[in-house]
Write a structure and sequence with these properties.
heterodimer, A: 3 strands, B: about 180 residues, alpha+beta, 5 helices, 8 strands
Chain lengths: ~110, ~180
């Protein structure tokens, strides 16, 4: 199974886990107490986030600590930004064209 | 100088939504957005020329084709046809159209396919595009364009392709070289 950042953030619970970990490092149990879903379900989401490179897990004694690594999210915002710019060029061009059309209409009105 | 209106992208399940306010009356924006004679003049980025044909009614067919000009690099020569059918055509409020990219060049299709995470036969060549035109002031129209894909993975593949090939970037660069 290949993983990517989009997949990591597609699920609302994974986004919630990330927001929680963005503020503080927590143990797996520390994450689980914030959610109503089962502990294995939390583990599964944390595992996916780890495989996507958004969480780092460190074993300290008996506890496993989860830390968010949010740099990877920049990939998504870069991708979306490029898409936004693509559409922006198109819509700018539509707006310029409409401005020209309206100028022409005004000229024609004056001639009448 | 009027301030430039912001183009906003947001994501929902299988969808990407683009919103933008255009400084023009709603009837006119609708006309320029849908009428093939107008589309040909604004649709393609500057290194492309565009042709457009459309039967402007519910159930009518349309086809826009972008072709790279002499200044376009070989991978942008195309032609890149976008065709489909109008599922709704309600002047001047709303247009819903299917978007079929199956006549795009094969290497373009391969590139998109290679960017689909865990590809298992998803249909990445067909999507549905809806456009809503809202009058927010007399001379300001809010345009909301929603593209709905077969899956999140297909949607994301289009984002990634933009990134990998530096589409937007190379287009920007080319635009700088061209007379304005």
């Amino acid at each position: 199974m290949r993983r990517d950042v989009f997949q990591a953030i597609a699920d609302p619970r994974r986004r919630a886990i990330l927001s929680l970990l963005a503020l503080q490092t927590l143990t797996l149990n520390g994450v689980a107490v914030h959610f109503k879903i089962s502990r294995p379900a939390i583990s599964k989401h944390v595992k996916i986030l780890t495989e996507c490179g958004l969480i780092k897990i460190e074993q300290k004694g008996r506890e496993r600590f989860c830390t968010a690594q949010l740099q990877k999210l920049d990939e998504v915002s870069d991708w979306v930004e490029q898409y936004r710019r693509f559409w922006e060029t198109k819509l700018d061009s539509l707006e310029e064209y409409l401005a020209e059309l309206q100028k022409k209409e005004k000229k024609n009105d004056r001639k009448k | 100088m009027t301030e430039k209106n912001e183009t906003v992208v947001s994501l929902a399940s299988k969808e990407v939504i683009i919103t933008r306010v255009i400084n023009a009356p709603r009837e006119l924006v609708f006309e320029a957005y849908t009428n093939p004679e107008h589309i040909a003049k604004w649709f393609g980025p500057r290194i492309f020329t565009a042709t457009a044909e459309a039967e402007l009614r519910k159930g009518g067919k349309y086809c826009y084709v972008m072709i790279g000009t002499d200044q376009a690099p070989p991978e942008f020569k195309g032609p890149f046809p976008l065709k489909g059918v109008y599922l709704e055509f309600i002047r001047p409020e709303k247009v819903i159209q299917t978007a079929d990219l199956s006549d795009h060049p094969d290497d373009w299709k391969e590139l998109i396919k290679s960017n689909i995470l865990n590809y298992n036969g998803q249909d990445f060549l067909h999507s549905v595009m809806s456009v809503i035109f809202e009058e927010i002031e007399k001379n300001k129209t809010k345009v909301t364009i929603t593209s709905t894909f077969d899956s999140d993975e297909v949607r994301d593949a289009y984002f990634k392709t933009g990134m990998k090939e530096g589409w937007a970037e190379s287009l920007d660069k080319l635009e700088e070289l061209l007379p304005k």
